[in-house]
Specification:
Length: 1166
């Protein structure tokens, strides 16, 4: 049979196919170097592109060939024999390509993000249309007051939506045709075919949690409420290690066997803690991970390339018949990329963000090679930004994995501003990469499930009135958990089963004897009594009240502009990256959250001080770029000055990549915002601690003692015997303290020591620890603040003959006890070494959270002491304060029960070693010399002045708002002058403490005294255990309205007053503070004893103290001196806030009122 005649076009297509797809014709044979992902930045994990070195070579293309000559005799060719060799040539594993020979890659289509309209629902009406129910929502666009209409159809109708709810509408509104004169209301219809609808978008639900919702809506909500880190399985540990190994390979672009094995060894050694928890040796771990990592190298050979290889088949279960897809991973953008999307109400952490090249081919039957060549040449590889998820478990693309990957396509499309039509799933066990298209129907179903979850979660926020005894403060709430699925098999193997059943029993009060899970339910909860259930329900509800403000704070990141949020003190706006800054390598940390360190400065130096606001060193933060990149890096503040902030973050900030992503002009600064991040995880841990009492096999002893208030038992004190070490420690205590120590040593369950200020609680605790260790006991030392824990450790540091382990954030631990932390010990390389470091110390010290006020006003101590007074021992002999200082607390709080331990303590005073400096201030004419009375500084430094209230009303010294916060600059100058006089008169810096109840004043004072490194500037909470010869307190509030809200917290006031040993100086406005009943009584007491010193007018200007460290106190910028809500506000000028200002500003005092856990979290972060 003669060959068929071909057209000229078919012949040219055929030859072009041969010369472009076949082996390259080169003068010199190419080298075949290994492919790898090369780094473009110093980071090991950002923006790596595929590159291969190329030697120069001559390349011939189709244009260089005489087609007629080459085709001569074509009618005699054996096509069947040539198909495998010519049309489908076998290529070298890593051929060298020159730019002219590489296949053209098509960019993704232009990205058109969905139109997002944020609305508040004003009204809801249900209607029937064509026999089907639909919901018609009257909404108001926010910000603004435009009214629109949203019609929900199909499965969207089931949304539990109510007036006042916030929604996102994704799609375009249109004005319907109307015959009336009124303008038609823009309307949008949301159904299975068109548009999307997000309910409560400010609740960012994780893609991982949502992916499990198809099986059970309840599980993701329960796991969000109670965050447990107890259950660690070998499979989880193997998966985490293998994830990290593969991410390291992607980052470094290295896939050779020795390097992979070295990474396995390194990551396993970093995971010793997890291995110890699953009782697995290093050798076992290495062997297991090497077995599981066998496919990594073949994965790289197949898929890591600049263009798809013939064997790089991409599995696609949705592919058309005969369609085959080939994959090349050409570039790595990021690993562990955390993406928040208030558009979709989702968030997620993507294993790897990659640039993928995909070639879709059709391998169906062909009649001849010309048509096949023509078809192949028409196919162009497509470049896509994609999520790449690594799955180390079962090698099946289950619905959970597919759902998670689909949701990541939404997040990445928004983050990268490009179309992301599908994602990639890599299964390490099968060496298979699966393509997961983001199909609308499936994405829609996931978002419907997300809305249902959000509606349940928001029910916790809709609290009703009190129920039962009003003292309990338990809010009335709707059912906030979906019903159980009652599937015995699914529920029985669920990791959240214990928590789910606990809530079903205690919160939902379900009685179940007949359902498929009735036996499981009984097994998990039958031991819980009604009283125990009521206890859990009460405390769980009160914890939930505490976290509501955290949710409000979190959403400000996208609902409030940076400058507005900065006015509220929770953001630094208009920040630019200081690219000249280089972090000192010796101070670098290996922590994942602090992988990179950067310095940011204000875009304009005339802008306000960074010290103005809630943000301080150690605070958690997020870094964003409006409006493109939301929270793309997270970390904490390392250092803070008025002009700059240094942050440690988890991701590299690559300015080239940032400019590309944000399409920023090369000649303009990229403007960042740095926001305070909120502490959600703390609440989940608190719930977990509570739940651990109730689980089967849980802490039943403490359940009996704490919840059921079982009577604590004590051994007979006559039976107490001490060894030599314990006896020596006991001998150093006074009689009162010995009684307390003996109570502890004879306790079978617990003992309570009620120690008044200065009675030696720290001394007693340190002695008790020594005694317990000498008796062979182990000790957990916990307190509400880092400073309280570290003060006790400092007592033990030079006397303990045993090891101590200090657990916690190294940046918040006192430098003098760093030696007790793991960070200052040799890095363990074996499980035995780690176990020795962690388990051998008989004393472990850490912090905890306190619950003691308002809705949670009955503290655990109070509850136990009221129930069992016999378990309490009082300490009332104090050895800290002199008699004058002790008088304050004794009269105001302790009803004269507190007494000085000796006459020497009672008469203690602070004598100035060298009065020359004070005399020098008056060597020349100065305003204070012409005053009627003695110089006010001289009076304060007189050793007979032991407790004094310095009244600033005549100065005057008005407070001034700083966003939501408040400071007093004049009072800060007065405090500085007193501290400086004390130091220059011979008082040691470390014997001076400066206190304030206001965070903004603490930051101001810290800056004023920044060169006096040993002077401690503390909040009242952090001052516990920080006794000083002289304490100077700045009360801050001085205004015509008499506002002094924090001063009503007498517990903190008492802590502040009782830190002083010899001299207590309190600066404040008598007129303002006497409006508070407790402070009025305090001021009357001070007045009765003649301990009030009124300052003369302009007292802060009377002494020319040189080297005033805070020049900004006198020369601060105009913007820094202006109150945001009163444009004409100047320093030290009283201004009554406008009604508008009062309404719009929520101060730190109001935020913390009635929120003791939130207050404690904020104090802990400070």
């Amino acid at each position: 049979m003669p060959p068929l005649a071909r057209t000229k076009e078919e012949e040219e297509d055929f030859m072009a196919s041969i010369l472009s797809d076949g082996p390259e014709i080169k003068v010199e044979a190419p080298a075949t170097p290994k492919r790898h992902l090369s780094r473009h930045t110093e980071s090991s994990c950002n923006h790596h592109s595929l590159s291969t070195p190329t030697r120069s070579a001559n390349v011939f293309t189709a244009k260089d060939v005489d087609i007629a000559e080459l085709m001569e005799g074509a009618e005699d060719w054996d096509w069947d024999d040539m198909n495998s060799d010519v049309l489908s040539p076998r290529r070298a594993r890593s051929p060298k390509k020159t730019p002219s020979a590489i296949r053209v890659v098509a960019p993704p289509p232009a990205y058109v993000p969905p139109t997002r309209t944020r609305c508040v629902v004003k009204g809801i009406e249900e209607r029937f249309s064509s026999g089907y129910l639909q919901k018609v929502l009257a909404v108001q666009v926010v910000p603004g007051d435009e009214r629109r209409c949203v019609i929900l159809q199909d499965e969207w109708v089931d949304t539990d939506i109510r007036p006042g709810d916030t929604i996102n509408v994704l799609g375009d509104f249109a004005a319907p045709a109307s015959t009336c004169k009124a303008a038609p209301v823009p309307t949008i219809t949301i159904n299975v075919q068109t548009n999307l609808f997000i309910h409560h978008p400010d609740l960012l639900i994780t893609a991982t949690a949502l992916s499990t919702a198809s099986q059970c809506r309840r599980k993701p909500i329960v796991t969000n409420l109670v965050r447990s880190s107890v259950d660690v399985t070998p499979s989880l540990v193997w998966g985490n290690i293998l994830h990290e190994v593969m991410q390291a390979c992607l980052c470094e672009g290295r896939w050779d066997g020795p390097w992979i094995e070295a990474q396995i060894d390194e990551v396993v050694k970093k995971s010793l803690g997890d291995l110890m928890r699953v009782n697995m040796s290093i050798e076992q771990a290495v062997s297991e991970i090497r077995l599981r990592a066998q496919g990594l190298r073949s994965f790289a050979d197949k898929y890591v390339a600049e263009e798809p290889k013939p064997d790089a088949v991409l599995t696609n279960t949705r592919a058309a018949t005969g369609q085959i897809s080939l994959l090349a991973i050409a570039k790595l953008h990021d690993i562990e990329e955390d993406i928040w999307s208030p558009t979709y109400g989702l968030k997620g952490k993507v294993d790897a963000s990659v640039q993928a090249i995909i070639l879709d081919t059709d391998e169906g039957p062909r009649s001849n090679p010309f048509t096949k060549a023509a078809s192949a040449s028409a196919k162009t590889p497509q470049s896509w930004t994609m999520p790449f998820e690594i799955k180390t478990g079962r090698a099946v693309a289950g619905m959970e994995h597919r759902a998670q990957t689909m949701l990541y396509t939404l997040l990445m499309a928004e983050r990268y501003g490009t179309e992301v039509p599908s994602g990639l799933l890599y299964y390490t066990r099968s060496d298979e990469v699966v393509r997961v298209p983001a199909v609308r129907n499936e994405v829609r179903a996931l978002l419907v499930a997300r809305n249902e979850m959000a509606a349940y979660m928001m029910r916790r926020m809709r609290t009703g009135g009190g129920r039962g005894d009003e003292k309990e403060h338990v809010p009335e709430v709707e059912a906030f958990l979906p019903p159980t699925i009652d599937d015995g098999w699914q529920c029985g193997k669920c990791f959240a089963l214990d928590t789910c059943m606990l809530y079903r029993k205690t919160v939902e009060n379900i009685v179940d004897t007949a359902s498929p899970i009735a036996d499981i339910y009984a097994l998990k909860t039958s031991h819980i009594t009604p009283e125990q259930g009521a206890f859990f329900k009460k405390w769980e509800a009160l914890i939930s009240l505490e976290e509501q403000d955290l949710i409000r704070f979190k959403k400000e990141l996208w609902t409030m502009g940076a400058q507005e949020r900065e006015r509220h003190g929770r953001c630094f706006s208009n920040m630019v990256l200081d690219r000249s800054y280089h972090w000192r390598p010796e101070a670098q940390t290996s922590s994942r959250i602090h992988g990179h360190t950067y310095r940011f400065i204000k875009e304009s130096l005339t802008q306000s001080s960074l010290l103005n606001g809630h943000m301080s060193s150690g605070d958690a933060i997020t870094v964003s770029i409006e409006p493109d990149l939301l929270a793309f890096a997270k970390g904490f503040i390392v250092d803070l000055t008025p002009q700059e902030v240094i942050v440690g973050v988890d991701h590299e900030i690559d300015m080239d990549a940032v400019r590309t992503r944000t399409r920023a002009n090369l000649f303009e600064d990229v403007i960042f915002r740095i926001d305070k991040d909120e502490l959600f995880s703390g609440m989940g841990r608190i719930r977990d601690n509570l739940a651990q009492l109730y689980y089967p096999g849980g802490d039943t002893k403490r359940l009996d003692l704490v919840v059921d208030l079982k009577r604590p038992e004590f051994d007979d004190i006559e039976q107490l015997t001490l060894d030599e070490t314990a006896d020596a420690a006991m001998g150093k205590l006074n009689t009162n303290q010995q009684m307390a120590a003996a109570k502890v040593l004879t306790a079978q369950d617990y003992a309570l020591i009620l120690g008044m200020p200065g009675t030696g609680k720290t001394t007693v605790i340190a002695a008790i620890i020594q005694m317990l260790v000498s008796l062979g006991k182990t000790v957990l030392l916990a307190s509400y603040t880092h400073s309280a824990v570290d003060t006790i450790l400092l007592k033990l540091k030079h006397v303990a003959d045993f090891s101590i382990l200090r657990v916690g954030n190294i940046d918040k631990i006192h430098p003098d006890v760093h030696e007790f932390t793991l960070a200052h010990r040799r890095v363990p390389t074996t499980l035995e070494q780690l176990e020795h470091q962690v388990m051998a110390p008989p004393v472990v010290a850490t912090t905890c959270l306190s619950i003691d006020q308002n809705g949670l006003e009955v503290s655990l101590f109070r509850m136990l002491s009221d129930a069992h007074p016999h378990a309490v021992v009082d300490l009332n002999e104090q050895y800290r304060m002199n008699a004058d200082i002790m008088l304050l607390s004794n009269k105001l709080i302790y009803s004269d029960r507190l007494r000085c331990g000796s006459e020497a303590v009672a008469q203690r005073s602070l004598k100035i070693p060298d009065p020359a400096f004070l005399r020098g201030l008056h060597s020349t004419a100065s305003p204070c010399q012409t005053a009627v009375s003695t110089c006010w500084l001289a009076q304060l430094l007189d050793d007979r002045c032991k407790a004094v209230f310095v009244d600033t009303d005549a100065v005057p010294a008005y407070d001034s708002p700083v966003g939501d916060l408040v400071e007093n600059r004049v009072e800060a100058r007065l405090v500085y002058q007193v501290a400086e006089c004390l130091i220059r008169s011979g008082i040691q810096q470390d014997q001076i403490g400066v206190l304030s109840l206001y965070r903004q004043q603490i930051k101001l004072l810290s800056h004023v005294l920044q060169h006096r490194k040993e002077v401690e500037i503390l909040t009242a909470d952090r001052s516990q255990g920080r006794d000083k010869e002289c304490i100077i307190i700045s009360m801050v509030r001085s205004n015509d309205e008499g506002q002094a809200n924090l001063m009503k917290d007498w517990r903190r006031m008492n802590v502040a007053f009782t830190r002083a040993r010899s001299k207590l100086i309190i600066f404040g406005s008598r007129k303002t503070l006497q409006g508070t009943p407790l402070l009025k009584e305090f001021l009357e007491l001070m007045d009765d004893h003649g301990w009030i010193l009124p300052l003369p007018r302009d007292a802060h200007e009377m002494h020319a103290i040189s080297d005033l460290t805070d020049s900004s106190m006198k020369k601060r910028s105009a913007d820094d001196m202006v109150e945001p809500f009163s444009p004409d506000r100047k320093e030290n000028t009283p201004t009554r806030p406008s009604k508008k200002g009062r309404k719009s500003v929520v101060t730190d005092e109001a935020i913390l009122k009635g929120r003791s856990l939130l207050k404690d979290l904020m104090n802990e972060s400070s």
